Amino acid sequence: MSFSSTNPEIQIIKRLDLSKIPAGSVEKFYFHITENGLGLPVYIPIIVAKGKMEGPTLGFSAAVHGNELNGIKVIHKLMAEIVEEVETLKGIIIAIPVVNTIGALNTERVFNNGEDLNRIMPGKPKGNSSAQFAHRFVKSVISQLDYLVDLHTASFGRVNSLYVRVDLENPQAAQFARLQHPQIIVHNKGRDGSLRGAAAKLGIPAITVEVGDPQRFQNKLIRESLVGIHNILSYLKMLPLEEKHSEAPAIVCEKSYWLYTDRGGILEVFPHVTDRVKKGQTVAKLSDIFGHTIKQYKSPADGVVVGKSVNPISQTGARIIHLGVENS
Fold it and tell me: Domain-by-domain residue ranges, the chain?
């Protein structure tokens, strides 16, 4: 690899060559992925920990959506620990604290052309700006992994439980989901242009961990997510750790979907995340600007609230609750 940087601790690379990284070290890179409209480099930060012993290559990614920040702190805490443990590490950890660096700088969920990177993976080599960004990221970084944990949060105006989206038909990915000991596990194939889905198409077992709410750090959820990551490292025998268990088992849902308003107005959502709701239960009320009730919304099935809207200003088609339906 050829490096050039004004900061000797952070190397600039155009190709991630794991064979050139010394065993028993933790290296930090700026990966030059594309250029902006002035022809200046657009970088993605990458941290690589390479153990002295053979083992799998495990990836952690955060902020594919630029406003989803809890995962950044999870990765920071994890890699600070790995620096102290790298002598006993088996295999390689590749951590990407921010994937969508352009969105993060703009305090936006999407890429700067308005597209959602987590709906267009694995991108296209000759597509538009976001498609090429996604393609180069998957081809250059994700393709080198054996496993992936992709860290997300809710988006603006919404809140999430600590939950995992996973294809439960993939035994390895299902095990990773259980090891997170989340509040909720949602079965989802990931055939939606997501990073998790792109990894799965490459034969890489992957899970999406939703770590709470957007645009802030939530220390409790960050700590809980980190425990789940420790469990995966233990399970893969990458570090000599013992699995930690949650007091309450995860609620496993065979499917989930959002409920939407069919009119605009002032929305009040009643249940909290992780609350169980019954079919026919009133979950939200929509009022006009004068305070008159326009409509009440009821749950179409028994389920659990995976996430919900917290934005009262709701146009027609606004989200209400993300309803998880448990295994029958």
Answer: 10-235, 255-326
Report which secondary-structure segment, H or E, holds 235: helix 219-235
pLDDT in tens, 42-89: 999 999 999 999 999 999 999 999 999 999 999 999 999 999 999 999
Cα–Cα dist 59/92, whole Å: 8
Predicted confidence at residue 6, as pLDDT, reads: 47
The domain over range 10-235 is classified in CATH as 3.30.1490.10: no
User: What angle, 0 to 180 degrees and rounded to 10, lies between the N-to-C axes of helices 219-235 and 171-179?
Assistant: 130
**Topology annotation, domain 255-326:** OB fold (Dihydrolipoamide Acetyltransferase, E2P) (2.40.50)
pTM: 0.94
Kindly give the pairing relationship between strand 90-96 and strand 53-62. parallel
207: Cβ–Cβ under 8 A, 6 or more apart, which residues? 148, 149, 150, 164, 165, 166, 173, 176, 177, 180, 196
Buried (b) or exposed (e) across 302-312, using 16+ Cβ within 10 A?
ebbbbbbbeee
SS3 label, residue 264: coil
Q: What are the residues whose beta carbons fall under 8 Å from the beta carbon of 254, sequence distance 6 or more?
A: 187, 325, 326, 327, 328
pLDDT tens digit sequence for 243-284 = 888 778 999 999 999 999 999 999 999 999 999 999 999 999
Residue 192 has pLDDT above 60, yes or no: yes
Distance CA 327, CA 311 (A): 30
Taking the C-alpha atoms of residue 33 and residue 148, their distance in angstroms, rounded to an integer, is 20
Does the pLDDT at position 35 exceed 70? Answer: yes
Tell me the C-alpha distance between 322 and 319, whole Å.
Answer: 8
Instruction: Report CA dihedral (9, 79, 138, 141) to the nearest 10 degrees.
Output: 50
Residue 305, strand partner residues? 323
Place of tokens 């065993």: 23
